[in-house]
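Recall the central idea of this unit: under ordinary conditions, the amino acid sequence of a chain determines the structure it adopts. In this exercise we apply that idea directly, starting from the sequence alone.
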Amino acid sequence: MNRMARLSLIVAASLSLLAGCTASPAAPDKRPEAEKPKSPDNELFIYTVNPAYFAKEEVFDKQIGQYLKKKFPDITIKHVHWDNPGRQYKDLIAAGTIPDLILDNTRMNVQRWIIDNDLQYDITDLIKKYNFDTSKLNPALVAQMKNLTPEGKLYGSPYNNNDFVLFYNKDIFDKFGVDYPKDGMTYDEIYELAKKLTRVDGEITYKGFSQNPGHYMNYNQLSLSPLSLTEDKASLNTPEWKKIVDNLRRFYDIPANQFDTVETFATRGNIAMAVATVDHLVSYHEQNKNLNFDIVSVPSFSEVPNTRYQPNVYSMYITKQSTKKDLAFQAMAAR
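Accordingly, the structure predicted from this sequence is:
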């Protein structure tokens, strides 16, 4: 296993622990081919794991389904979204119902679910066959996809970069008379705001700042790797990693600001600022339509100002087991 594959495993393992789940490969379907369920010839089976908002069929249809139906009017689109329990990778694999096309988070899941379960398929020949113009794809996103797979093969096409932004609750800032955050602020500036906004008011504990530590570390803005660049070992005990850890720890050390999950930003309404992925614009609004919030760019380190997090790519993957690879590729290219 090459160095980048090991990195992918470390990232997947750390996120699995944070999510309270395991990343064991699913048990293969050992039934004879004749006994495995067959999908109709005119059906394209699309399985979405991320983004999470595709759990709502109307959102999937609005963003993907309706366009594919217009492009391929004679094809039936079967869409299944990951759910717990019953619709996880392991459930589909155990049932022998392998999707034709998978939409998932590249960095989190491509190694532990797609590759480890032997679902991957190199789309290089299909790119040539259909003369697909890869210059239309974001080169940074494609590079990350190749770097996180063995031998640098391209198993899919990027769908979007679910970038990180800083959400803030305007009502909390207004309540305590603190100026709203702005684009381009540093962690030092956000830390000062967090201290002003973290307080106990009656029965409510207001938290000035929150974010997912796993995302912060894995997509860090200094582009640090947990593996050594020169030796086959972990490399976390460095001044640069210490800087990253200490930077986030000081927010946690603010009295009463012990981190809560950023998923409660909309539901509890007591978090002043939270770093989360941009797709939370949809989920936060749906959870609380009265939430008075806005977004700005994520804070950055003063020595590397205005630096974003590393790409958080959602990509489409054609499975090795699909009997409709050409149709799946055309759907991927048309989206």
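The longest strand covers residues 43-48.
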